[in-house]
Write a structure and sequence with these properties.
The structure holds 2 protein chains of 2 kinds.
Chain A lengths: L5 H6 L1 H7 L2 E4 L10 H5 L10 E4 L7 E4 L5 H13 L5 E5 L2 H4 L21 E3 L6 H16 L5 H7 L1 H12 L9 H5 L1
Parallel strand pairs in A: 1-2, 3-4, 4-5
Chain B lengths: L4 H13 L3 E5 L5 E5 L4 H11 L3 E10 L4 E9 L27 E8 L4 E3 L8 H12 L2 E3 L24 H8 L11
Parallel strand pairs in B: 2-5, 6-7
Antiparallel strand pairs in B: 1-2, 3-4, 4-5
Classes of the chains: A alpha/beta, B alpha/beta.
């Protein structure tokens, strides 16, 4: 263990534990997911950074959205995000979730993902290299240290707005609201 | 214009059987057939019997200025070298392609207002997903198709999105850009 970080471990043990066990949900959208297999296997070995893919969203706390999100995918993205236990962190990967990228005028691709679910950080580029994922992970550590990776708290707080936006694009959603009380308040 | 022997034969046969089609052999020996929508199925089944037994794809073109929609069937055959005119397996000289190894284009034009054509599933079963896709993206109705249900899209469009008069920029402005950003201050 790094001796310099010992004080951090004593101050906020849960935060440190979250930092070094990021379980990324296996969710493949768009073309960016082609970068994930080399990232998690021997070539770049994401486990050095504590990032391991998790089989189900209920066991994961990191959500990498790896490319363009079509309307149909958005439904799955929201369902997956809502199933993940808190604290959970989302990272938009590539330029398509940021502003649509090359699909900015597509009839079926949503342009800004952060209108529908909260995003903690973005990786720009088309495509970003696997190294960019590690840069993002180290940035995410800093954000967790400073309590700035608070996407899940924002989702709770502004859930009514998020739900309204989701319904505006997807129509009637077939699952009940995640946070009942906050919606009325 | 180059009439390779096989294509010439097939062209003659088609011309003698059908009155309402136009055949055309391009410079590289590829046969293009323009058929009316009534004769599409009979031409398809005749070509299938002649050895073009594989439907590569069904495609669609929106000719907005002519106010027509064109369905394109691309057929090819699995005939190898030994079945062709050159049984020794030597490579063909340029400009003398083996007609059976060329694909055939069968085109038909439909009116743009209510495009409708008989389904080709009974001749080529693999036409099913192509026709479903064309129905969804171009709004062409295929009579006799067992399930013209949505394939890719999740929402309703007033104009099918692959038609030329579908304004994607305006659509994005109306649908996706009108979603407000999350107001974090409130």
């Amino acid at each position: 263990m790094d001796r310099n970080q010992l004080t951090k471990w004593f101050k906020a043990p849960t935060k440190m534990a979250h930092k070094y066990s990021l379980h990324a949900v296996y969710f493949c959208t768009g073309c960016g997911v082609i970068e994930i297999p080399p990232t998690i296997t021997a070539r770049w070995d994401a486990e050095r950074f504590g990032v391991i893919p998790a089989a189900t969203p209920r066991h994961a706390n990191l959500f990498l959205i790896t490319g363009y999100v079509s309307v149909k995918t958005l439904r799955a993205v929201i369902r997956t995000y809502e199933q993940m236990p808190e604290p959970k962190f989302t990272v938009g990967f590539g330029s398509c979730p940021i502003n649509g990228g090359m699909y900015w005028d597509s009839y079926n691709t949503i342009n800004q993902l952060d209108k529908y679910i909260p995003i903690d950080g973005w990786i720009a580029g088309c495509m970003p290299r696997p190294e960019a994922i590690f840069v993002a992970v180290t940035h995410l550590w800093t954000l967790i240290d400073k309590d700035m990776a608070d996407g899940y708290k924002r989702y709770r707080k502004h859930y009514a707005q998020y739900r309204a936006n989701q319904e505006q694009v997807l129509g009637e959603l077939e699952w009940p609201p995640l946070f009942q009380s906050e919606r009325e308040g | 214009m180059n009439d390779s022997p096989m294509n010439g034969q097939l062209k003659k046969k088609l011309d003698s059987v059908f009155r309402d089609i136009e055949t055309d052999v391009s410079d590289d020996g590829r046969l293009t057939i323009h058929a009316t929508k009534e004769s599409v199925l009979t031409v398809l089944s005749l070509l299938k019997d002649e050895g073009w037994s594989f439907l590569q794809l069904v495609s669609c073109v929106d000719w907005i200025k002519q106010d027509e929609i064109e369905i394109v069937y691309v057929l090819s055959s699995y005939v190898g070298v030994e079945d062709g005119p050159d049984a020794k397996g030597e490579p063909y000289a340029k400009g003398e392609p083996d007609a059976k190894r060329e694909s055939i284009l069968l085109k038909t034009r439909l009116p743009r207002s209510e495009p409708s054509v008989l389904t080709a599933i009974h001749v080529f079963a693999n036409a099913e997903p192509y026709e479903r896709e064309i129905h969804e993206l171009f709004g062409v109705h295929f009579e006799g198709h067992p399930r013209l249900t949505p394939l890719f899209l999740d929402r309703e469009y007033k104009i099918p999105p692959f038609r030329k008069d579908f304004d994607t920029e305006q659509y994005v402005k109306d649908v996706f850009d009108s979603v407000p950003p999350i107001d974090e201050e409130s």
